[in-house]
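Hi there, hope your week has been kind to you so far. No rush at all, and the record is pasted right below.
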Amino acid sequence: MCFWIAVNHGKYSIIQKKAMTEITYYNRYTKKNETEKVYGGTLVNTAYLNPKRAGFIDKTLALPWVSRLYGGLQSSFLSRGKIRPFIKNFQINMDEYMPGPFKSFNDFFTRQFKPEARHFVDTPALMPAFCEGRYLGFKNVSDSLKFPIKGVGVNVNGLLRISQWSQKFIGGPALICRLCPVDYHRFHFPDDGKLVNSYQIHGKLHSVNPMALKNKEDVFLVNERTVSVLNTKNFGWLAYVEVGAMMVGKIVQSFKGENFTRGQEKGYFLFGGSTVVVIGEAGAWVPDQDILQNTSFGIETFVKLGDTVAQKP
């Protein structure tokens, strides 16, 4: 689910805002802070308020099969009735997307942009946004200096698990893109390159709502995720991580093969908001200044798919 974080004397803390029904982010295009609704926030907040109840959730709702079952229901034709109210409630501009008809809510949830709706920046030294969503950026991360994802400190070793790869990225730059349920849920490659390795880290599927994080700080490290190690033409080695969350039906890798091109689709999330993390080698690239500045104040920056999010120094 969605979140909002703030910085207090250099430390990130979770801030409750309007009973978690809205979050605040910076919109690069309107050049001002905006708010957005949190889908299903009230239910998740209530579930995690009581630590004892959170322990129960760990043994029930956070189990992967529960989210798979719920995701399966979203793929049923019975879920089609949710589509119109969802579009209206969250004011989604459907003119940007390929038209239906959609067979299920998940069919709608994984909708694609029209070809002319988004453009990937083609300047070699500029990294295009690999997702459309709200970005945090960091110049460097290390195993001793943790960086916050969804309000929780996470080190590279804990995120990637395999030391062969985590050692390559310690001290490198990082971008974290948060996807809410209302967003476009396909993710793409940021450059030409080769897929060197890919592996799953199995785990549970806790909510990443702020209330859940407040009561269970290891959510990010225990959640299921997929790690891909990429060797790219312009930005060197990248660790590309897709993270699952409660009621995310599945992380689908639509790309098959080794060699990919800039802007090519890598995969998509079935129902549920989640996160994509990209970490690079030390000194290989730097996140855009507006993303870095907003991150220093604990504010995410909304960036459209394909627009610039980083550049080579």
Notes: DSSP finds ten helices and 20 strands in the chain. The chain has one domain: 5-74+118-311. The longest helix spans residues 64-74. Residues 5-74+118-311 form one domain.
